[in-house]
Automatic annotation (TrEMBL):
Key words of the record: Cytoplasm, Methyltransferase, RNA-binding, S-adenosyl-L-methionine, Transferase, tRNA processing, tRNA-binding
Biological process annotations from GO: methylation; tRNA processing
Catalytic activity from the UniProt record: guanosine(10) in tRNA + S-adenosyl-L-methionine = N(2)-methylguanosine(10) in tRNA + S-adenosyl-L-homocysteine + H(+)
Domain of life: Eukaryota
Identification of the protein by name: tRNA (guanine(10)-N(2))-methyltransferase TRMT11
Family affiliation: Belongs to the class I-like SAM-binding methyltransferase superfamily. TRM11 methyltransferase family.
EC number: 2.1.1.214
Compartments where located: Cytoplasm
Domain Ribosomal RNA large subunit methyltransferase K/L-like methyltransferase: 190-320
GO MF assignments: tRNA (guanine(10)-N2)-methyltransferase activity; tRNA binding
PROSITE patterns listed in its UniProt record: N6_MTASE, SAM_MT_TRM11
CDD domains in UniProt: AdoMet_MTases
Length: 455
């Protein structure tokens, strides 16, 4: 596919983790900022080098203000499979596009970046000297240059078979870095209030980006837990709200999840987490509520619903109810009544979640959630669907040799609400036995590990 001549070409240097999540994140963010994903590459696979066509440098900079999957972006001036091809490509790049960054009053620096190979300083200098044909008129400044240029060499993905010469060589002007530092600065290890299943910071930001969360949005999490997903959404300027069935978690009570700490402190709660990062102004509220019985008036309230439902492994799947038949004529329970906790099947949970999203999301709003699957039995048909929601992406994260969870992103594309009928959830009944299958695999693995030691 040929790239439109009116668009500038950019090189994205991607991080080498959460590989399946990278493309949906970049596509979502480009869409959010008024761009469209256009590329000459047919596949992205595991390569860290992506060539994109983007309408403007402003959109490229906005993209990098949000992404945690990309390290850096460069305006691509040349590309080749050998030094000779690169130099030929650079000589064809329009001089008028180079001049603003190479004039005599400017300062610059050239960096060498290699993937899967380490070069000596002498080799790096040799590569820089070979670029002397470029019309650089400014002065070199290694500490605080106005413009940074990079030669990026790709030596493939196999660390055991590193080729003598690179597969691809790129040259470009550095534009901006991504938000990789958020993964460390928002690390759960430093978080004020955590639980057994608090979401990893990097994945929380990826989920917010898949959900196209932006300033002044209202983002809701119906299985809020300790609020990790609210923190990520609030960082991007959204107002956040959540519910959970667990009274102790919502109020920050009970046993602590941290090692060497028996009970939670008086100020360990979701609001304190947002306060820790200077985001308290975005906190709307968190309520004790049953996701199977949403207490909402009909209407569209949320720009995004981002959530991690319990799978029944480290957190139980529960809803309120009673095994006993309720006598006819009794509509309300007495105030002293404490609801009984029942098992909440995963198929019912996703059935309720999709119906809730279809009813309460604004048009174009997104639902982002995790779906646990037993890998040997998984097919794409097992992903829940809804007539009002369009599937945007489906990314896998391995949990074990036989289980994984899939990050599902859906977008509301129909304004007229249509309710999913209960019999339409039958294809997803297999999710109900996820817990048993998960632990059966664990049991088999332990038995396999213990067998050699017994012999």
């Amino acid at each position: 596919m040929a790239l439109p001549s009116t668009l500038n070409r950019y090189l994205l240097l991607m991080a080498q983790e959460h590989l399946e999540f990278r493309l949906p994140e970049i596509k979502s963010l480009l869409s959010l900022f008024g761009g469209q994903f256009i590329s000459s590459q047919e596949t992205y696979g595991k390569s860290p080098f992506w060539i994109l066509s983007i309408p403007s440098e402003d959109i490229a900079r906005n993209l990098m203000k949000r992404t945690v999957c990309a390290k850096s972006i460069f305006e691509l001036w040349g590309h080749g499979k050998s030094p000779e091809e690169l130099y030929s490509s650079l000589k064809k790049y329009p001089v008028e596009k180079m001049v603003p960054f190479l004039h005599s009053d400017s300062t610059y620096k050239i960096k060498i970046h290699t993937f899967n190979k380490t070069l000596t300083q002498e080799e790096k200098v040799k590569r820089i000297d070979a670029l002397e044909f470029l019309p650089f008129e400014g002065k070199v400044n290694l500490k605080k240059p106005q413009h940074v240029f990079s030669v990026l060499e790709d030596y493939g993905l196999d660390p055991n078979r590193i080729p003598e010469n690179p597969h691809n060589i790129y040259f470009g002007r550095w534009i901006a870095d991504g938000q990789r530092e958020l993964i460390e600065s928002y690390s759960v290890k430093k978080r004020h209030f955590i639980g057994n299943t608090s979401m990893d910071a990097g994945l929380s930001f990826i989920m917010a980006n898949h959900g196209k969360v932006k300033e002044n949005d209202i983002v809701f999490d119906p299985f809020v837990g300790t609020g990790g997903l609210l923190v990520a959404s609030a960082h991007f300027g959204a107002y956040v709200y959540g519910t959970d069935i667990d009274y102790n978690t919502v109020h920050g009570l009970g046993k602590a999840s941290r090692k060497n700490q028996k009970w939670r402190g008086p100020d360990e709660n979701i609001r304190a987490n947002l306060r820790q990062y200077g985001l308290e102004k975005y906190y709307l509220d968190v309520l004790v509520s049953d996701a199977s019985k949403p207490s909402w008036r009909k209407g569209t309230y949320f720009d995004a619903i981002i959530t991690d439902p319990p799978y029944g492994i480290r957190e139980s799947t529960r809803r309120t109810g009673s095994q006993k038949e309720i006598p006819k004529g009794i509509e309300k329970c007495p105030e002293s009544h404490v609801p009984v906790s029942l098992s909440y099947h995963l198929s019912d949970m996703f059935f309720d979640l999709l119906n809730f999203a279809a009813e309460t999301l604004v048009l174009g709003g997104r639902l982002v959630y995790w779906l646990p699957v037993y890998t040997p039995e998984y097919t794409d048909e097992m992903v829940p669907w809804h007539p009002c929601l369009k599937l945007i992406s489906n990314c896998e994260q391995k949990l074990s040799s036989h289980t994984s969870r899939r990050l599902i992103t859906m977008e509301k594309n129909r304004d007229q609400y249509s309710h999913l009928l209960s019999d339409q959830s039958l294809p997803y009944q297999g999710h109900n036995s996820f817990r048993e299958k998960y632990f059966s695999g664990v049991t088999k693995r332990i038995a396999k590990e213990e067998k050699p030691s017994q012999e």
